Amino acid sequence: MTKLLNTYAQFPIEIVDGHDYHLVDANGKKYIDLTSGIGVCNLGYSNQAIKDAVSEQLNHIWHTSNLYINSKAEEVADKLCPDDYQAFFCNSGTEANEAAIKIARKATGKHQLIGFNYGFHGRTYGSLSVTGYPHIKDGFSPLVPDITFGEYNDNASLDLITADTAAVIMEVVQGEGGVNVGDYDWLQALQAKCKATNTLLIIDEVQSGMGRTGYKFAFEQFDMDPDIITVAKGLANGLPVGAMMAKLAIAPAFGPGSHGNTFGGNKVVMAAANQVLTQLTPEFLKTVQAKGAQLQQLLADQIAPLANVKSISGKGLMIGIHLSDDIKVADVISTLQDNGVLTLSARGNTLRLLPPLIIDESALQTAIERIKIALA
Ligand SMILES: Cc1ncc(COP(=O)(O)O)c(C=O)c1O
């Protein structure tokens, strides 16, 4: 009997090797990867510069604790943060959101938080409490109090934001929730309401950030100006990392002793993150935008017309194919695995695609052809 707790419904595949956007399983079967390890290995599986940076750091020092100066973390924060923000490093998306919730409450002196239905922010208590999925909270009560949920993309939910609200936490493209793209006007109205009520706006870019939608942060396309930004997943291309960035006006709420963790800013992880950020140039992001446009065109031409496809949503290389009830997304994923393509699901019978950002056009074409066959 396995000694692993049964928290994941695993596929009967063990991935043992990877090259760029291809993965190889223990039987030598090769797959086109449209998952990036759930939005993590955005720069693929064999990025030499990242490997070199990590190897170089491994040969010096791995870990020093945060009691000592960490120039590697300084360098990553410089590259990661927009002007007027400071970063706190941790090890995952859920921890980044924990830090965001804590600093928001401390900086405002208020405790009420607002999340959105089908927003996903993680599994630890604070992040779980602001996550808008009732079923994944089952059995874990009592959760963090003073949290209310609004409907995503619904103007009525803006009425929930008042002068008593500490912060609103949201994704501008909900990932796990079904690849739901925020409506530009709604996001603008939400931001205006936050400003008018002195409510902090936390944008969770854990899945949508680090180039996934063709921009360093997805909120850039919606002209948003968050007070707090969280990232994780793609930041170190597969080594565990998270970051919470707070505007300078809020940042002093986290003084010495107010928050911390043992591994955050670990030098090996920072070596990888530094390389990721070095490669995330405006030119590279333009290539992602172009591939996103190409993928969306392929989907519009070949997948949208299929009888069992209800609609397609997404931004850049973050895509949801919404299937009709006649076909189960789990079956489509299995068929695609048999046919050498790895894909993901999201809420609502959605086939989710998060290909490595370095995937090439012919691989995208091949993958879409195989998806078409699987759906037919
Ligand atoms: C938007 C978003 N926030 C937070 C998380 C939690 O990140 P982690 O699993 O690294 O804790 C996820 C994970 O899927 C996510 O998609």
Assign an overall shape. globular
CATH superfamily of the largest domain: Type I PLP-dependent aspartate aminotransferase-like (Major domain)
Mean pLDDT: 98
Radius of gyration computed on alpha carbons: 20 Å
Family: Belongs to the class-III pyridoxal-phosphate-dependent aminotransferase family.
InterPro entries: AcOrn/SuccOrn_fam (IPR004636), Aminotrans_3 (IPR005814), Aminotrans_3_PPA_site (IPR049704), Class-III_PLP-dep_AT (IPR050103), PyrdxlP-dep_Trfase (IPR015424), PyrdxlP-dep_Trfase_major (IPR015421), PyrdxlP-dep_Trfase_small (IPR015422)
Organism: Nicoliella lavandulae
Cofactor: pyridoxal 5'-phosphate
Describe the structure.
The strands form 4 sheets. Strands 4-12-11-10-7-5-6 form a 7-stranded mixed sheet, sandwiched between helices. It has a 4-stranded mixed sheet with strand order 1-2-3-15. The protein contains 11 helices and 17 strands. The two termini are 39 Å apart. By secondary structure, the protein is of the alpha/beta class. It has 2 domains: 15-47 and 282-375, Alpha-Beta Complex (Aspartate Aminotransferase, domain 1), CATH 3.90.1150.10; 49-279, Aspartate Aminotransferase, domain 2, CATH 3.40.640. The longest helix is centred in the last third of the chain and has 22 residues, at 282-303.
Keywords, please?
17 strands, globular, 2 domains, alpha/beta, Aspartate Aminotransferase, domain 2, four-stranded mixed beta sheet, 33% helix, 376 residues, binds pyridoxal-5'-phosphate, Aspartate Aminotransferase, domain 1
